[in-house]
Specification:
There is one protein chain. The protein has 189 residues and is an alpha+beta fold. The protein folds into 2 domains: 118 residues, no CATH class; 43 residues. The chain has a 4-stranded antiparallel β-sheet with strand order 1-6-2-5. The longest helix is centred in the middle third of the chain and has 19 residues. The two termini are 23 Å apart.
Length: 189
């Protein structure tokens, strides 16, 4: 079982995600606007049944509203002459992304490795806002886990512009060496 310590040591700042989001000076105000890398580390497992995590999210008011917006968008686009086939497909997008939850390796002790995401950004604060509030590739699985009581720590490390690409590659390679050539579960590439 990987405890995430080796990867965690590569990042120079860690904060509980909820503290970062709910900071008195605004969401992620402690996170620099600089380029860098970031990592999500599980600090508490909520619902351990990953199928339940997914079904809770799919049955949520958010997903019901999202589905309705997709449908209504097609009606609007048809009405204004843009074509119903141009309807939004955000629900399908979220469902496809939600499948990443299945990659989280659970065992008798809990989670096999607490590191679930490694990414980079040219503006860390902006990217954290996208992760929390929309516009990030991992939104659906991340929100589903949060909805099911999971808690996370956010780790980040500032880097010179463009250097974040190499630093992310280094972290992902280190992760792969420790996990039979696999990426963190919420990462696609």
């Amino acid at each position: 079982m990987c405890n995430g310590k080796l990867l965690s040591a590569e990042l120079n700042h860690w904060i509980p995600l909820t503290d970062a989001v709910q900071h008195e000076n605004g969401p992620f105000s402690e996170v620099p606007k600089d380029s860098g890398v970031y990592t999500l580390r599980v600090s508490k497992i909520g619902t351990p049944n990953l199928s339940r995590v997914k079904s809770n999210f799919l049955d949520s008011a958010f997903m019901k509203a999202r589905s309705r917006m997709d449908k209504v968008s097609g009606e609007l686009f048809a009405e204004i002459g843009l074509g119903k086939e141009q309807a939004w497909t955000d629900t399908d997008y979220y469902v496809r992304r939600l499948a990443r939850v299945d990659r989280i390796a659970m065992n008798q002790q809990g989670i096999a490795c607490p590191i679930v995401y490694i990414g980079r950004a040219n503006n860390l604060r902006r990217r954290m806002n996208e992760l929390a509030f929309g516009g990030h590739t991992a939104n659906a699985p991340f929100w589903a886990l949060l909805m099911s009581g999971w808690k996370f720590d956010l780790g980040f490390h500032k880097a010179r512009p463009k250097a974040e690409v190499h630093l992310e590659a280094h972290l992902k390679e280190l992760f792969r060496e420790l996990h039979e050539d696999n990426l963190p579960p919420l990462v696609e590439r």
